[in-house]
Give the backbone structure.
Amino acid sequence: MRIGVSTGGGDCPGLNAVIRAVVKASLNLGWEVIGIERGLEGLLDTRKIRHLTNKDIAGILNIGGTILGTTNKGNPFRMEVKEGRKIVIKDVSDKVVEGFKKLKLDALVMIGGDGTLSIAKAFYEKGIPIVGVPKTIDNDISGTVITFGFDTAVSVVTDALDRLHTTAESHQRTMVVEVMGRYCGWIALNSGISGGADVILIPEIPFDIERVCDKVRERYRKKKDFCIIVAAEGAKPKGGELFIKERKDIGKEHPLLGGIAKWVADEVRRRTKRETRYLVLGHLQRGGTPTTFDRLLATRFGASAVRLIQNGEFGKMVALIPPDIEAISLEDAVGKLKTVPLNSDIIVTARQMGISFGD
Ligand code: F6P
């Protein structure tokens, strides 16, 4: 067997651990593995491919990012292509299929988020034997209880909240921290609880800024004298709009979210007259060493993807359905955002801890 492996969409800690697991498990079966660079670009331009050997994957288990490179503008069904001086959108998916055949590949492992897995599904329907591996720090993919990268992101935010506590307390300040997660509140919720936040704003619960200020006032009234607010980038005020930093451009799947922390901090300062600062953790949440949990999950996903290929089970995605890694069809997994259920124990727990959602 000769298989390809690619990473698409935004990077996240644990991608290299999946690549390593795919390569190791395949080489142990006597297969050959080809790394496709920058999403599927390597299938359009076969100079962007490389054989992956044991030497290539040595020492990458704990390294963040992806040795194959990635892009979130790499949808071959809607690719930005230069024509003279103009940039046009073209469907180059047939060329990808040609590239796959030219490289004499028997199967392809596509590691990515919902966007990449939707592309994987479309190529499976075009005849490429594909297995998907879900990744994202946002934890928003349906069908799998968790994705690797999420635990690392939550750990980074929790560490930041620990650090902010000491400075906020010293200065009797309110600190507003903006975290990633796109349209889901998983990162904000999990890190907010673990990091002892007083207010958590998530997309699933539109907030009222006056209720947020009530919590801030209550903290100072009770002589706590500081307040930590975690705001998911995708949260919005009741009846308000998403905070958008950059509109979606032609090749991109989503607009770039951002700006909520500044807005909340300005409003809290104006309404409560308390000294307030804000910060945006941004891509720090996606970088660096994956946690033990993420390395293990990523390795299990990679090995399981190879087992699916061995069994000829294509058009599927590996998923954590405890206690095991199972396979679910790409059809069932993509296009369904996994938001935080409002009746989940984690929301109830947060409320029991006195955390305000601003509702
Ligand atoms: O999906 C992962 C993610 O980090 C989101 O949490 C965030 O909204 C987005 O990607 C940022 O995208 P970019 O890498 O284009 O800045």
About this structure: The pocket of 6-O-phosphono-beta-D-fructofuranose is lined by residues 10, 72, 113, 136-138, 180-182, 233, 256-257, 286 (CB under 6 Å). The mean pLDDT is 96. The first strand starts at residue 2 and ends at 7. The domain at 152-287 is CATH 3.40.50.460 (Rossmann fold).
